[in-house]
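Reopening this ticket.

The earlier resolution said the output was attached, but the attachment link was broken on my side. Pasting everything inline this time so it's all in one place.
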Amino acid sequence: MENRTKKIFPPISLFVLVVSFVLIWSFVFIPKSRGMKVSFLDVGQGDGAYLEFPDGKNALIDGGPDRKVLEGLGKKMPFYSRKIDIIFLSHPHADHVAGLVHVLDRYEVGRVVLTRAVHTTPEYQEFLKLVKAKNIPVTEAIRGTEFDFSGDSKIRVLYPTTSLDGENLNSTSEVLLLSVGKTKFLFMGDLEKDGSDQMVQIENDLKADIVKVPHHGSSNALNENLYRKVNPKYAVIEVGKDNKYGHPHSALVQFLDSAGIKYFRTDKDGSVEFVSDGTNVFLKKESNIFAF
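Inline output:
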């Protein structure tokens, strides 16, 4: 009897070990569908937002001015993942595109979405060179273009129109509306007041729960009519600590306060994550989730 016990226990122990390993892997490492996640990354003086869809697909909107975006992605993505399904570049200024050069070096990218805006800086030229070398499909961002995702999620380009006249690159910025069921997120790039005035006139419905404040909160991007039409509950200002531009401008901060729009600043609050279940949006911060 004693010898039989010794022969039976090792296989049972091995079985328990294997089952335990599988359970741990499934609960810890395999992504679960827990709603739509939108993370405004702290990339310094620049923009970078990471989107994770319910089925595990993902997207990146802008990449900030340097390698810091990789740190933000490393915290949001599973350690084994090296794929980004789609990258949106709002416009080719260095504080939006330079970090994407590092992203293209590190990750496999399924598609890139850009405008026709022309810029000859080394950062943008290197970005275009890598896109071509890696044979990444490119889609032009024009008003009305839509990208459908799972879980009743889609991204629609609101701006620019087919015309990109003028030399102000900020006013060529992609404006993207992410819809997740009944909830909406508005990404404004660096669009200044002249561009947002045009968008307000041509778009009937601009309402969104969350707005990414345009141009890091600069005074030339403040458009009170825009905020009244969007009527956001939260605003996010992507801005670098002690930046030389004085962003965000005091006029923008005062307006948000007077309008009762709660806002976050990445220079003070770090990365900010929101989760949508299609009906409600939740703010996730420091392991706590608050509904609003």
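Reporter confirms the inline version is readable. The radius of gyration is 22 Å. The first helix runs from residue 2 to 28.
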